[in-house]
Amino acid sequence: MAAPASAGPGRPPRLSVVVAVHDGEAVLPRSLAALAASGLPRAEWELVVVDDASADQGVLRAAEHADVVVRLPGRPRGPAYARP
Residue 1 has what pLDDT? Predict the structure, then answer.
């Protein structure tokens, strides 16, 4: 997967992709690979991963690809809580 890229100096991305995850270490790499394979150039979108109090190492995998990783502390609250 290509490294995260910005839309350019002073240009926001055209699209923000928010992925909420809880203990998703097993499935997160495939999900991120599918996003990278999309037809929209990587420079046109940003990836925000919101980790909902995971106990696994999925957030480390996300950090390899995401522009932003947000870790929610405490107990898991579900995907609706994890989405902005």
Answer: 45
